[in-house]
Amino acid sequence: MSHLLVIGASQGIGLETVKAALAAGHRVRAFARSAGRIALSDPNLERFPGDALSAPDVAGALEGIDAVVQALGVPFRDLLGPVRLFSDATNVLVPAMEQAGVRRLVAVTGFGTGDSRQAIGPLQRLPFRLVFGRAYDDKDAQEMRIRRSSLDWTFVRPGVLTGGPATGRYQVLDRPSSWTNGLVARADVAQFIVRDVESRDHVGRAVVLISHALPL
Question: What residues does the NAD(P)-binding domain cover (predicted)?
Fold first, then answer.
């Protein structure tokens, strides 16, 4: 079993990844500013309060770690202003991982990041740009910084996120020609992340995850 560092572990996909990794028997270091409030009980869970923009915090969190899951998010209200969290945190994380000799990174970005942006359908393109444009420009910078690294990375690009339990019926779209937007449960994304950390099937690749396609 691996020792995983989950950055952004207090909510969303990060929290679901913590749950899925613990269920699979991994040791998990849950990193977030509010990590102390994570309401889970498991002997393999370590809560690690820290700031993803702090180099000392990140370096300390990497000690003894086998793989990192970067699952950062910003509140909806922050999408209307400049967004720098994804790229700034990655500019801290990547050199810290290289220095620590931790090579495996799974980074959660999103459908519409990087070369998947051209797969956004015409009905979705304008509202996507208006609402998520600033955040996804920053996610582009995040992915570009990781691509320039020496790490064994995978980009996980989920579609529109939903709640609820894992279904296990999601699609892993790993060819650009197959990329399309759709709905997917956060718990299913987490399930894929944990499996891919174990299998390393998509090192150096980006995948889109959906359960049900949306109209183009």
Answer: 8-195
What's the CATH number of domain 3-211, 3.30.470.20, 3.40.50.720, 3.90.1150.10, 3.40.640.10? 3.40.50.720
Least Cα distance to 10 among 54, 66, 73, 100 occurs for 73
Q: CA angle 185-3-148, nearest 5°?
A: 75
Domain boundaries, given as residue ranges, for the chain:
3-211
To which residue do tokens 């499996």 refer?
195
**Average pLDDT of each block of 10 consecutive residues along the chain (216 residues)?**
96 98 98 97 98 98 98 83 94 98 97 89 75 86 98 97 95 95 97 96 97 80
Tokens describing residue 194: 């944990």
